[in-house]
Structures are given as structure tokens and as C-alpha cells.
Amino acid sequence: MTAPHYLQPLLKTPFHDRARAASQVESFIPWAGYTTVDVFTTMEQEYFAIRNAATLYDLTPMVKYRIAGRDALPYLNRLVTRDLGRLAPNRVAYAVWCNDAGHLIDDGTVFRLGADEYRLCTAERQLDWLLSAAIGFEVDVTEVTAQIAALAVQGPTSCAVLRTLGLAGIERLKPFEIGTFKVGAAGVTVSRTGFTGDLGYEVWMEPEDAESVWDALMIAGRSRGIRAIGSQALNTARIEAGFLSPNVDFVSAEHTIRAGRERSPFELGLGWLVDFAKGHFNGRRALLREKERGPRRQLVGLDVAGSKPAHNALLYADDSGKREIGSVSSAIWSPTCKRNIALAMVDAPFFAMGSSIWAEIYLNRELVWERRMSRARVVERPFSPRSGAVPRHRMIFEPRIAA
Amino acid sequence: MNAQVRDCIVIGAGHNGLVCALTLARAGRSVLVVEAGAQLGGAAATRLFSPGFQVSACAHLLHLMSDDMMRDLQLEAHGLEWAAQGLPTTALVPDAPPLCMPDAAGAGGSALSARDGASYAGFRARMERFAGTLAAVLAETPPRLGTDAWSDRLALLRLGWRLRKLGRRDMRELLRIGAMNVHDLLEENFESPALRGALGFDAVLGTNFGPRSPGTVLTWLYRLAAEHAAPAAAAGGAGVLAQPRGGLGAVGAALGRAAAAAGVVIRTGAPVTSILVEADRACGVVLASGERIEARTVISNADPKTTFLELLGPRHLDTGFVRRVAHLRSHGLAAKLHLALDRLPRFTALDASRLKGRLLIAPSLEYLEHAYNHAKYGEYSAAPAMEITLPTVNDPALAPDGAHVLSAIVQYAPYALKEGWPAARGRFVDLAIDTIEHFAPGLRGSIVGSELLTPVDLEREFRMSGGHWHHGELAFDQFFFVRPVPGATQHRAPVPGLFLCGAGCHPGGGVMGVAGRNAARQILRQAA
Questions:
Q1: What is the ipTM for the molecules in this complex?
Q2: Domains and CATH numbers, chain A
Q3: Please, where are the H alpha helices in A143-294?
């Protein structure tokens, strides 16, 4: 018998024992109710494995919903802002969904597993919203988070590792495609998806197969530099790729308390995910009004002068710091770009591409705080070569397999 | 746009739907009303329930329609006649003489105790002042909160000014009692259980409340405010309770004639199955026959749940809105009992002249509260509360010669009865008859036919979700600014081109016509 939930405030994923054995610094953090690894060895070592070799990341805590039934597609199309009508079976789509006011509730991925069966992967639990959205639809929504174990296998050698593991034809799997394979006796589903912006896959399996798949991957990847990574390294990679992190770069409209803290897809630079032509969806009328009005602010990538990450920096229109125009939500020194990059919410009209603004950065130098105004430029995401970030061709990797 | 397309289509020929259609037609709109049933008037209906016996099927007295509305609709010119007006109310008390309720002015009642007598006139006068203030509020479309529109700000200012005009003492008192329960209010003012019970009954009639439920002073004030503007009161008459000749169905019929005279086309036996939406705009309806009828504006007299969840469908709506509509509390608790009698029943110690009015069985607030307690748990009480009328006393034509009809609203009869109505129906009828028989010995022997309409039956007969007369509970969270739900106030649905005109809107149910008229005004304003 497992202990009642109040005696085990954090659950353990099926990979927990392997992760604990691989951990050298005992750095664990809670994620969606599970114990997960923040750092195994050092953040830098793990980050460079993402960019130069292959990595394993336990994403079991990612919240997963099974959505099935005759109305699964109309249901999902009313839920999310983009048109899923063209999503073929065995394909994945990134999507966001909004409340009535057109404010973002969450982002996630929609997997089409069959004619009338989908899986929705999200950051936050939101069964209540998903069930409310099901009123009037013939659809069954079930949380299946604990029923499915998942590993992200990411990095330039990830395809070769999976091929070595015996996943024949994995090199033909296109971005956002899903395939089914065998790892020994275990059946796994592999999607070419990830959160690193690098070549990578996500491997979905039964929890009882978790450890054997982990072990097999580690053996298959030994000669290709595979290593387990924690959330810190992944976070660095996702900022370089320009991906948003819930509760960091936006707060779900279902969780905000203060008025005006909600964000719309347009404000988050996700307008390309909004399809007004597909028929009604949650928040459509509000988003149309917003589109006509134009966004008051927008999330953008910043290339910040100097080498000090602009953590939580306030942004100004001028270097005197008189006119505040936004703030930074994610900031790193990008190891691959060798540049100081950030994601920031910037007021109109300063979010325009190429506009030059100022970041107020505080530095703690042996307990003495220094304030520095650094110039920052609005640049394209993913951070591209001319703006001084990861070369674009590295972001959408094609697998290169030696014949 | 196609010149052949009609301006407006109204779904449902309830009294509000007809008032709305008539108002629009008078403003020059081409209007079609499609009604699922055969009769006009919705819950203002007369029904043949036993061979030769007719009765008002839902509401059985007219007392909420304002003088102003009556004159506006010209119902009397369209054939509405009165069987009786200014009807008295009598409270039946077990094993004691009945209590004849004095009218608003304190006249014509039984002798009250010294203390109650001293309180009564002052209490009623104050409640009438409140009712007078609220009557104007009831007649208007409530403003929206938190908008920048001048019309909303102005309406809020007007509301504030009306309250302020009551004077400091009355305004304070209104604010004090506004959210109270009627039990506490009556206990403060009166000592006679029978008087308290009779007054409290009106506060909970047709609601999902007991006298101790919060907000029951509000529901009472709501009724008083509507009655305040009714013709008899407006003319300074004795009482507002009126009985149309031919039952309440005569109101529906007169409304139908008035609407037709204004140019409204009415089709009965034409149930709507869905509202057509094109390019995110309501543009017509589909009938059960498959016929599509287009119109520039679609107006629904159906209740909000039926309109949004069934006719329009959640696919055209946002999830948060659908959730609010689905959570709208609309389970009815009032049943209608109809008895066909071969002679006039004899009520113990009751003067025959009182039989033309209404008789209440609510001998104390505790009696009412006990009856409600059972309803909370999906049961009915062994001691139900009732409002009884004998419509044939004033209008003998409703029954064969010498025979009579008894019409009773029986409370509380929960919509979601635990054991289910098919199993309980017979026992519930017996219980109701026994309860009346206690005051009218020999009643049972005179019964030649009977009918019980439970909330489930009312839901089916009158196509109102949950069988609730008000198309949704009248409670603070479903009232005024937020009625029926945020996102559908001021008669406007979230989908452009679709409007609501039924009791689900402010000011709610009761045969008033205000929701219908305000909806029409809103549509005309929008187009202007």
C-alpha cells in the first residue's frame, strides 16, 4: 500500500530511482506534485549535452488528458485558438487556449492519436475547465498523467541514439510526427517534439516499462554522450529557443488575482496561433476586439548589452529611467550565442522589432549592489545569428545519420 | 441584405414574447412569432383539465402587470374582461378562526392583537414606500457595471438618487432589511404566528426558499413593487389581485389579438429546434419540421438554459459563459393542483364572500420553514403550504352549472424529487387534498376529477427548464445587474443578433410583460 497523499506530499515518477542514483548534487524541486531533478551534476554540463550530444529528461509530471469521443475534434477546436481540423492522425500541434475574455489559460501540445482520440499535454491541471468546456459535446475527458511515463530525448545525437536502440526508421519521423516503436519488449510512442529548440524526441510509455527504457537509452547513448538533465539546463535551452514558460512568462488567467495581469495570445506574441476563420472558439469575440484595437503590450526577445543577465529587470524608454515600459520575465547569458538574452513584456510602441530600450540591471558584487542601465534591442525569436543568438539552422535540426 | 428577410423572429409566444413582438411591430418592424404549443401566453394559460372543467394552468391570478403596461397593451380593447378585481386574501388557521388579511391600507381584515394592530399600518406603509421606489427600478433595464457608457452611469445615478429620495431613515431601513430573511423581519414586527405565516408566504411563493433563507425580503419586495404599479393599487383601490374572465389564458389570447392587430404574424405548433448562426451572427431559426426561417434579429422568449444550451448550443458560446448558464439555479418547487368539484366546498367558519379571493395555508413561518426543509433534501413535507383559489366563484363558466374548480399552488414540491414523481404523484395528491379537507370537511366527496402538475410537468407543458416560473431563481446572485447571468444582461446574448425577452431577464417572472417590452426597447435602441 502506498501512503495516503497527505503523508507523501510529493509523488515519485517511475524514473525516480534511476534519477536519484544519477544525481550527484541532490538538487530536487517539486513540479506538478512530483519530485523532479533540478540539476544532476552541473547546469553547464547538462546544458552542453543538450546542444552537443544527447540528453534524457523526465517529463512524466507534465499533465496529460485523454480526450476521446465523437465530438473530440469540435470540442478541441472550440477549446483552443488554432484550427486543429487539419491535424492528421499521428501528428502533434502546439496550441494555446483562452477564457471568455481572450486571456490565456495555458499552452500545450495536442497529440492526435486516432480518428476520435487526442491527448492534451499541459503545464497546469485544469480538469474543471476542460469539463466545463465539454458541456454540450459528446466527449470524454480523463486525466491520464500518472498512467503515462515520458522521457524527452533531446540533442543533436538523439536520433542516432534512438536508432542504436533499435527504433528502425526513426530518422524518417518528421517534426511534430508520432510513431510507435519497440524498445525490447516494451512498446513506446515517440513524437518528434521538445522544449529545447534542438533536434529531439519525446518517448511515451507504460510506467512499468519506464526503468527498462531508461536503462536501454543510457546504454544505447553511451558512445554519443548521453546524460540525464534537470530543469535548469532545460530552462536555459528553452529561453534560447524563445519558448514561454507558464508562471514565468505569463500567469494563467484562471490563477491571476489582480486585474490586468492576464495575457492574451497577441500580447504573448502567439497571434499566429489564433485562427478567426475556423468558427467559434473560446475568447474569439474578445480577441477580435483586441485585434482591432491592437495589443497594448507584447512579449518579445531582447538582446541586452553586457554580460549580466537582466533577471527581473524593469525596462525603460530612456537611460534616465523616467518612463517605465515593461519588465523582463526570463533572462540568461546564452552559452551558445555568447550573448545576453531575455524574454520581456514591453509596452506599445516599444515592442516593435529593432527598437532600442533600456534595462535596469542590479548586480550583487560581494554584497554590494550596483545598478546598471544597459541598452537592449528587440530581436527575433528564436534568437537568430544577426541578433547574436543561436544560428537559426541549429534550431530546426534534421537528423544526420551516417550511412 | 435580402429585402424578403423579416426583421425579427420571436421564439415563443409567452406573454413576454408577445409583448416584445407587439412593441417591435408598433415601431414598424416585421415580426414573426413561432410558438411550439397551440396556445398563446405561455404560463398565462387556461387548460381543460377534466371534461367540462377549465382552470388557469400555471399562474391563477393577475396582480403584477402594471397599470402603465395594461394601458400600453390595450388588453381590454382586445377582449380582456375581468371576472373579479380587488380580491381578498384569507389565511386558514388549523382549529382556529381564519384570519382575514387586511388590505395595504389596513382595512377590511380580522381584528389583530393590540401589538400587531399597532404595527401593521406603519409596517405596510413603509413597505409600500419601498415598493414604490423599487417599482421604477423593476420597470427599467438595469445598467451594466464597470463600463464607460454614459447611459450606464446615468442609470446608476438615477438608482442612487431614487434610494436617496426615500429619506435618511427609510433608506437606512431599506439597506438594513434588503438582504435579510423574511422570517426575522416579520418576527421583529408581529407576534401572531398566523399573520407572520400569511405575510411570509408571499415572500417565498414560487421560489426555492424558506422564510429563513437569506434574500427573502428581497423576493417579497419584488412582489410588492410589481403589485405597487398594478392597476388597482395605482387607482388607490383595495387590492391588486385580479381574475381575468376565462382564466389567465384570456390574457394570452388578448395579447395575441393585440399583437396581430399591430401586424405581428403568429404561428403556433411550430417548435424551434435550433437558432441559425452565420458568421457569428444569429440569423434565423430552424423548426422541428426542418423549415428554416431567416430574420435579421432573433429574440428568444425561452428560458436562458433552453435558449443557450439547446437552441443556440455551447459551440457558439464561450466556456465560462456556458458554465454560468449551466449553473443557473432554475429548479422549481411549486406544483399546481386542480380539482373538479361537483359543488362549492364549505370551509369551516369562513364567510362565503371570502371564497372569491385566495386562501392561504401557511399558518406560521415555522410551518413554511418545515415544509421547505424537506424540499432541500429532495422530499416533500407532510404539511405543504398552499395558495388556493376557487375561480368558478367569480367565473362560473369555467365549470358545468353548479360545479366548481379548485386551483391550488402547492409548495414545496421539488423538481428533483428523490423518489421520483411517477411513484409519489398519487400520494402527493392525496396529501394535498387531505390538507385542504382539514379546513373544508367533505371536500373529498365532491371531487369528480383532479390533476397535479409537478415542476416536471410544468417544465414539459410550458417548456421552462426546471419547471421554474421565473425561468431561474430570483436571488441576489441572479438578480438585477446580473440577471440571468453576466454576459447576457440587458437582453443581449453574446452572439450578435440574438436577444432574450423572457422571465430569465430582469425583472423575472410573473405575468408582467416588462422583460418583453424592455427587450424590444433594447433592440430598437441598438438599431437606432
A1: 0.91
A2: 5-60+148-229 (3.30.1360.120), 63-146 (3.30.70.1400), 296-391 (2.40.30.110)
A3: 158-164, 210-220, 231-241, 284-293
